[in-house]
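INTERNAL AUDIT FORM
Audit reference: QA-55
Scope: verify that the stored structure record matches its stored sequence.
Auditor: D.O.
Record contents follow.
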Amino acid sequence: MDDMAVQVRGLALRDIGHRSTRHDTDEKTKDTGGKGLGVEVPERCGKALSHALKGLLALHHLTIDKSKEEERERLKQQIIIEEQHPKMANPYEPIKMDYEPINKKKEPQEHTSRSRRRKRDKKQTKKSGNCLIETNSNVDKNAILIRNKILQWQEPNRDDNFAWKMHLKTLLYEKICLAYATLAEYSYSHEQYGFSLKYIDIASKCQKLLSSMILKSRVVDASCLVGRVGDNFIQISKHWGKLEQFRKQFNTDHEIDAVIRMEIENDLSEEADGVVTDEFDLDISLPTSETEAMVSSCHYYRRASEARRDGASRRAELQRRLASVCNELAVKYMSDAQSVYSKFFAEEDEGSPMAQQYLAQFTAMSKKSSELLDEATEIFERVNDLPNLVLLYCNKARYMRFKAHCDPDGSLAPKSSLYRDAEELYLKSLRVLGSRECCGAASVWDLVCWELSCHLYTKATLLYEHSKDPAEIMESFKHALKYCQLSPGPRQYLYQFRAAMIHTRLGSLYHAQYRSLSPDNDGAKRRALMTLACTNYERSTMMLATLEEVALFLTARLEHVAALEMVPVSSNIKLKSLQNAVELLRQCHSIMKVLRDKEPDEKEQAKPEDDHSVTDELSLLKLYETKLHLMLKSIVQYCRCSNTKDYEKMADSYKRLYLISLKIKKSEDIRSYAASICDVLQAMDEVS
């Protein structure tokens, strides 16, 4: 470096003559010592930065006759004059244009071989200005935009060292900014987000200097550069486990990087002309938490959107990215608030300082979640992004449900209002999408329908547990049943299970209403209620049998039998009801086989959710046996009350079935107990 300083010191640009560009066409030189520019992006950019840095250091030794302030003011005035009086053609002199005849005479071509012609045509094709090669380009549309055309200044006077220095310095910093922007994109595409942020930080400082010098220049687009910072922060939040790796990348500086940083800082204090713009003042630092990373991403997306003054499509893309991060951050705040509320709920004294602290945190997080969801909704509505808008409506509805569930007041009126708002948002989402076949986003439609079904089922279940109005409860369950999609699909099992539970509870509600009415005064209404109860029980058991939910099937079937058992003895259909009850119990043969063949190591699953139902499979089997004995015995006793021969034959037939049912062997082993019931049911089928 000292030798170079000795050679350059005192050197004036006027001493450099115009180098001749003529070369002897017969002489060809080849540099065999160099290794070329390299193939990888980091290698090429590293060489470019190294050369640019040498140029910056060499400019330190360029002699200037006058003081910097005088030269700076003189150059500024010169630029203003050139801008106000641009060079133009003389209106009294014609512009020289080369004349070419329309009909050119074709010169005779020498005979060339086919291979040479192909090579020549190939070279001409490469030299032609065909731009279609970028048709299938996979370049990231969100990448940092580089200015396509470098501004060309008028060549300064060779006796004006200061103008040449500023001119060359601007060109060198342009190359440095370009190299760091390229490295930032390369690092981002290779998931090296720490390196990407470091290179963006240097590129932003370099561009800040270029925007503040006398010869102002713009290499990178501010909105793309700042937007890429937001991209890096959201990616860091998604790869939070690699934070230390990203931190090491961000804090690792090459020797060239450190020297270039120093040069930029020195020139910012010396060469800056007027007020320094804060458009590229990024102040990047790595976050300390996942939430902070997402908040920083939102901050930089907002700055990028504000910096994009032209290009509606690119600004809309930035807005979409901002709304997406706002949505994710809102969901995170919602989840954190739910965890805090669990801690508040676990406190014995809700008035204690710790409980009040939890409540304050819950309120703050809930408010932030609501504000972010509103902001994201406004953005997606503005850019008319319907699929994302629909998903955001779903998240807002989920927020309403979350707020209703975690409301510390506990009053029913606000919760009902929140549930209605959530339902309206789900229905609004479906209206925006339209029909499933025509919306073009079937997966989104299925998700919205599933969320709505969950919401309506939860609401109906809460009413079932707390409300005293049977009509309101039944209407809620019917509304929830309407959105159970039983057609084949990934959620078919869940929909069928939910529909089966709804039918079971509807049967229980109709059964309860049947018991509450008087047999003497409300005969027609009781018969209608009995029909509805039996219909819902039947539908429930059919679905549960398909799903092989043994405990739930037996619970619904035994409730169905109990309903038939309640028909008054004086009724003409008493015998028919008892016979139907026995037939229902005998139809349990297939489900008993499932229980018999269940592996010993399988865990008991699918506990009934009804508080009035028996949850233990062994107890259900005992109750099943008791009901079977009771129904058969009741039919025998009913038939003996009549003296007709038909009833006597029927009594003998059911008596034989009753005797067979007594062969069931009780056991504490569920599989053995179920096997004994299967044998008895098989014997009954052989008899009748």
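Auditor finding: record pair retrieved intact. Residues 1-35, 125-139, 148-155, 602-615 have pLDDT under 50 and may be disordered.
Action required: none
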